[in-house]
Design goal:
The chain is mainly α. It has two helices and no strands. The termini are far apart.
Length: 74
């Protein structure tokens, strides 16, 4: 394994071209796009799940005094 004694000379060398870690500049854009897709997908799935649960509860038509009977799905 090579050792670096002078970082200024190393980073200005032609073969390094300023990149101090692999994939500099190319991987980050892909990760951002994947992250945005996952974030939007999670929101869509969560909204769909909550809508289904709320519509299921709305079909039960609880009365105003059902909370006094300690109904678990209130």
């Amino acid at each position: 394994m090579a050792t670096v004694s002078n970082w200024i000379d190393h980073l200005s060398a032609e073969e390094v071209a300023g990149a101090i870690y692999p994939g500099a500049g190319s991987v980050e854009g892909m990760l951002v796009i994947i992250g945005i897709i996952l974030w939007v997908g999670w929101h869509v799935l969560t909204a769909r799940s909550e809508s289904e649960e709320l519509s299921r509860l709305a079909k039960k038509r609880h009365s105003a005094n059902d909370h006094k009977s300690n109904i678990t799905d209130w």
